[in-house]
Each structure stands twice: as structure tokens, then as C-alpha cells.
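Researcher: Here's a chain I'd like modeled. Treat it as a single chain, no partners, no ligands.
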Amino acid sequence: MKKSNLLFSAVMALAMGSLASCSSDDLVTEVQGQETTVDHDQVRYLNVTIASAGGVGTRAETTDNDFLQGDEPKENFIENMTFVFYDAAGVPTGQAYDLSSSDIADEDFESSTGSVGKIWKSIIPVSLVQGQNLPSYVMCFINPVGSAEFKSKPLSEIEGIIRQEVVRGNGNFPMTNSVYYGDNPITGETKVRMIATPVNTGQLYTSEEAAKADGAQAIDIYVERYAARVTLNLASGTDVIVPNATDVNGYTLTFVPEFWRPNAIDQNIFAVKRYGLLGDGNIPNYNPTFAELQANFKNKTWWNEPEKSRSYWACSPSYYDNEYPKVSDDITDIAAKNDYTGTTDEDKYPYTLHYFNYNQIEAGKVEGGSPLQGSVKWENGFSKTFYARETTTAAKAWGWENTENTAYNPLASIASAVIVGHYELEATGGSAAVPEGDKTFYLYGKTEGKWNLYFESSIVGAMVKQQSVVLKRTAPNTYEAYREEDGFIVEHPSKSVRDIKNTTVAGRLVALQLDPLALPTGDNELYYYDVTQPEGNRYTQITTGNVEIVNSNLLSTGYASKYGDGIGYFNIPIEHLGGAVKTEDGKSYNFAQCPPGSFGIVRNHAYTINVNKISGLATPLRDKMQPIVPPVDEVSYYISARLNILNWRIVPTQDVEL
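Model: Modeled as a single isolated chain. C-alpha cells:
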């Protein structure tokens, strides 16, 4: 059987964000006025231009302030690429074409400006067997992870392929066609989702010479990286990290940064950008029309730019799951194992987003799980870039257009940058000395508007004074509050205790509890008032059988915030391009007015956060295993933003005071 070779002239634009592509919706086998099949084996040729987001190992400047060239050599390096061809129905046709690093030379690239960083041009053969359909679309997979799957699946399934890596083990960046809503010249449809670049028969040449000739029609392919680029800048020095002597009675607290990384991040990424919506009842719409998306964005147009063959929004896998924890117990109660590597439902990590704990941030990965980029370590300042997975959220999760959102914790639904560290304490005004060798402290109750600070040696005594649940019998039928420390501990309430009251408790909070293993006995036996008993017989001795009921009643004494080993964190929601609306004081967000696209991380976008000052109190972590689920009731950051994006697309730079 004789094979037919068709050539196409390929222009690949590593725009780190723009590309002409094909609609996966309602693909048809009829191509408008074009030949659709070959009657004998043949090779045709395509003149291809690939537009990329930066040069191979070089830095290129852009004249468009909305786009920034990749400045790290690996951000733009192409080690290998695969071209896959599809017929008008989106089914693979012909033979996929692979190029390795030996086929790709630096001199093959040209510099560009604006949305496009670098341009690579070549002639690509399309080998077809008799009876196969001519290609109507082409996709280019650069530095792919698992290219075999890309070669075998139709376009309708390509959108569902999941990957974990956004940076390969060798440091190279996977890329593929950019996705946007535009006009499809193959089907004649307008404003449809384009995921693959259209090819018309006039761009398929029967000889390499014809494909190279002056006037040959080139195919422009625009590609973008899987990764988003997040940079957090925090300088050292007392003008930035300000000792806090105003919020706590008798002590000055100085925060010592240790690490930062993105948090509440998707554990997977779609290999090809996809769009979607959540309808009534949170039913996913995986194929929204342009009109439906425009309605979702209230007719704003920032999210789509077909002129540049790119778009500035997407839906990550978690967008469709639409489930988020309110408190860290929602994670640890289900995923009982700290490394989350179990195989039973009880041991599986319960959310699509991952909420890191201190140990995982310090180690740079989830224990036993898939490798992740290590956190950025404090080295007399933060300056290193982090490459993150795309993570986006439906606006209903943070309460858009709802005056009160009770279904979710808005901050837990939003990708954020977290800075973790510990406090150094200095006693002032005759306060108790800071214990040597133990950095743990507690904030419990306020005096004249300032927190009272306690250590391990003093917190039980302070909380016992406030309790009236546990009683001691002082005479027949006479009971009074037990004020001794014996038998009491301060800890985060157990699941069984919380379940009795059907209450949620933020991870940072601890309560006064009786230790079931150290209950006083004999003359020191303790009692509580049991309203379930008949009148006149309600004073009931506390035993191991009812101590959890007593501990649930002790929650009424109130909670202390525990800084285990002195550690805490600052949480900075990452703003996108949708126009987040802040409260009047600038310290928080008016989530009900934050439209779709206000927050999130989108592939091939560059996010910069400048932390100008740290002076407020960090949110406590009671220990190093507590997942960081930002509290719904505390926000302590100031954010101002200005637009500033890479080719990688630049997203508003956030200037933050913490």
C-alpha cells in the first residue's frame, strides 16, 4: 500500500498563551467545500508556525505591558513536541509526527513581541493511508507527559485528560494549544470553543518545495504552558517585618518567616484548558456556549481575546467538584492517616484541592503522595518563583450575589499564597518570662482590648477559672465549681466531643477538657449537672462513660488560640482579572460583590504578590500537622493591586500588608 505524504507549513506561537483552535462542540464530518478523504496513500506537507512564550534559553522583551516574556531558560525550552491531526469530526487521522531535541535548533526560532514570545517555523509531513480523512485540525503537544494518550484520543476526550506535572522532572514545561472562543472556518460556526488549530485543504501541500514556496499558506499554532507562575516578594528588615507590641498584653511578638507556597491548590490539571459552568443544583455544564459564559461574566469581555487566539479564564478539576472544607477537621476527620496514602475511603484525601500542613510545606511534598514543587524557603527574604497548577473556583463558592454565604468558607475555596513561620516573644512591663526551649503559647481572653497571653504552664489555670461545668461536692447536696488543675488538659476537641454538640471548631482553637485517663477518684471525685436526669437527682458523677458529654459541655467555657511551637501563617487570596471588590477599610473582601474570575490561578498567567509589611498577628497553627484551612472569621491583610502580566499573561500585582 502506497503512503501519501502531505506537507504543511507550521508556525508555532509559544505565546504562553495564544492559539487558534478547534471547537469540540458539535463536530461534523462535512467540511465546507473541501476535499475530505484521500483516495491513495500519500504524504502532504504543512507550513507550520508555532508561537511561543519566549525564546529557547533567551529573554525577550515585550512591547505589550499586559504580557511578560519567560525569563527562566527552562520556561521556554522545547525538548520535544508531537503534532496530532484530526478530521472534521475530531477523530485522529494520519500519522502523528514527533520531533526530538535533535530536530529543534535555537536558530529555528524568531523573536516576537506582545502576546507572542517566540516563533518557530517548519514544514511538517502528514502521512495518510488510503481512505483516511484529510486533517481539518492539528494540535501540538510540547514536552508532553504521556504522549501516547494524546495520539489516540479524539478531541472530545482530549479535554478530559488529567495530568499532575506542570513542570517535568528535568525542568521543562509541558505546553499545548491555547483555548479560546472564536470563529471556526472549518464548520462555519462563530463564537465556539476552539481547542485545536483549523487546517484547510489549501494549506496541505503535496511537496515540501510547494510548502516552502513564497506565498505558501502557513498554519499558526499558539501554545501555552500548563503552569501558572506565582511570585511572592518579601524583603527582610524591621521596616517590613515589624514587631507587634500592640495586640497582646505584656509581650512583643516578632514574626519570623520560614516558607511560602500556594495553598488550596488543585491536585491535578486538565492537559488542555477547558471551560465550564455550574448550573442550578451545582450541575456541571461541561460545554457552555459563548452566550452562557458571557452571561456568567455579566457581559464583561476580559476573559476572551480571539484576536490573540487566547483566553484568560479556565475551569480546573476542582471547579466541578465544588466542595471545600470549612475547618481543618473536615480533612483530618476523614483522612485519618497523616500522609493520606491509605486505600480505603476513610484514608483518602477528601477534597480535590489540597490544603498543606506545616510539615508538608517544610518537606516540599505530600508524604507518600505525588511529588510537588518544594516550598520557597526564607533566605533573608523571599524572591523565588513558584510554578503552580491551574486552580479556579465558581463564584457561588465565595458567596457572589449572596448577602450571606453559609454553604462554604469563602477563603477555603480560593487559591492563596501562605507564608508560614514562628514567633519570637519578648516579655515587657514585668510580664512572666518566656520559657526556654518551648515556643508554644496561647491567646485567651482580652483585657482592655488586647489579647492575654499564656504558656503551657499557665493556660489550664487561666481556663479553669472560667469553667462552671465540672463540680466538686463540698457537702451533702452542695456542689461548687472545681477550680483545681488536676485532671484538666487543654486540647482541640475530639471528633466525638464535637459530634455531641454538632459543632465545628476552627483548627487553631483549643478548649479546656477533662483527661479521660486522669479523672480524680475517691474523695476527689467530680460531678456535673445532667439535665437528662430526673429533678432532684441531676448531680451525676463524672466517669469514663460520660466524660465526653462533660467535655462537650466544657466547650461553653470558650476557646484559646494555640500557637504550637509558636507557628502561624498569613493567608493571601490570589486575585485574578475579574475585579475583586474589597471592603471599605481595604482589609478584606466583599465576597457578595466579587464577580466570577475575581480569584484563582490560570495556566500561563504570571502572578506577583508584594508583601510590603508584616505587623499583624498570624493565624495560629496548633501543631505542624494541622491542614491550613483559612478561617472564615479572620482576615488580617491589606491588598492593593495593579495589572502586570507575562506572556505569560500578567495578572494584577498585589501589594499586601499583613
